[in-house]
Design the sequence.
């Protein structure tokens, strides 16, 4: 159901898999994603404006309480995955769950360091880039050592990524819900950028198969023949008629 909802605009669009159209759509999406919002800028033109509009339902205290309760459900997802990892050796102590939060905190700090952009007028850019390179090499080496010398497996790596993505989304939802507190702490810009990163990742997941199929011209030709085939069109018309009759009978 999720796949059909996400990809229906491309599957049922005769030009959905044309390479030039895909390039134009990707350019429009990146421009929308990184366009700065502001007063008078509509959500259809800027991700930041759209993101602010999506927070309208949590302007009331009741809305914030409900959003907080709903956001906590993602922690259950993390809790279940942590104790299924092979490296835990079926250890169900709370210390293991607490250690997963320490790892998450380290990942957040690393994200802040990798996204740091010091002023060009200072001598820090070269040092920061050098430090980022060392950290990247260190992270790869640490993961390789974990897989090679412990019970940590590649499957555990992907499972941990899913758990941390869910936990990060929970923290983002809570931070957005209690916006005033986060702004007081001076963390609102970081929350916005991490939210942008999540949406950019989701967009990449959607665009990846579209770009792949758009590379092959025969996919677009095959799609057009199916969509404009008389039998297919007649089948769609019949299904719409049957759906309408069923709705009338139920009413």
Sequence:
């Amino acid at each position: 159901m999720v796949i059909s909802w996400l990809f229906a605009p491309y599957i049922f669009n005769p030009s959905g898999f044309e390479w030039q159209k895909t390039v134009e759509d990707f350019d429009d999406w990146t421009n929308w994603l990184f366009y700065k919002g502001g007063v008078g800028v509509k959500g259809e033109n800027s991700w930041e404006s759209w993101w602010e509009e999506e927070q309208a339902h949590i302007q009331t205290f009741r809305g914030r309480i409900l959003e907080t309760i709903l956001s906590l459900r993602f922690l259950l997802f993390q809790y279940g995955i942590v104790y299924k990892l092979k490296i835990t050796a079926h250890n169900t102590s709370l210390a293991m769950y607490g250690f997963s939060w320490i790892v998450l905190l380290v990942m957040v700090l690393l994200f802040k360091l990798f996204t740091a952009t010091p002023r060009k007028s200072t001598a820090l850019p070269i040092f920061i880039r050098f430090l980022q390179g060392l950290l990247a090499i260190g992270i790869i080496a640490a993961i390789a050592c974990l897989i090679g010398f412990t019970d940590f497996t590649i499957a555990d790596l992907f499972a941990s990524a899913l758990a941390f993505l869910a936990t990060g989304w929970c923290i983002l939802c809570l931070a957005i819900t209690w916006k005033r507190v986060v702004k007081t702490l001076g963390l609102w810009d970081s929350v916005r950028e991490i939210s942008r990163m999540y949406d950019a990742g989701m967009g990449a997941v959607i665009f990846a198969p579209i770009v792949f199929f758009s590379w092959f011209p025969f996919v677009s030709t095959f799609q057009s023949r199916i969509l404009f085939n008389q039998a297919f069109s007649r089948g769609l018309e019949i299904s719409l008629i049957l759906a309408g009759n069923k709705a009338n009978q139920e009413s």
Observations:
- The first helix runs from residue 2 to 11.
